[in-house]
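ugh ok fine here u go
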Amino acid sequence: MKTYKPSHIANYFLKRAESQGIEITLLKLLKLVYIGYGWVLALTGRKLFDEDIQAWQHGPVIPSLYYEFKPFGRMPIDKFATDLNLETLQLCIPEIDKDDKDVLLILERVWDIYHRFTASTLRNKTHEADTPWTATYKGENGANKTISTDLIKEHFIKKIEGYLDAAER
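structure:
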């Protein structure tokens, strides 16, 4: 089972956006990566990456992505995440393994559903009642605390079940 870094998932969404001429800001990218993580966790029981997801003021944040793309602020991101290849000591652009069909299929569905939403709409979705962010971020006391993987998994299982129930009606 392949594990990734957040940069792999970010690059998936950045490449999808580039291929469709869609602009993605830091806030939107953070929310898409979080949602992708949640969907994969709920559907496969597998964590996409080992980095903590933290409850920040504007929702769930993956710190390494935040700091890599922070210079863009609210402007569209026009580069891919990079990583240092420790064997060659060169920067590379991490990508999801093309043979990892389950992850690619799930991330494609996430893209299909969520890419149309604005960054602020995605932010608001993460701030709804009974979300992992809401359970973790309680004013200043919860700021920058790690959101439990179990909370994320339970939340996205409920979300996906709700989508399936709605589709059956």
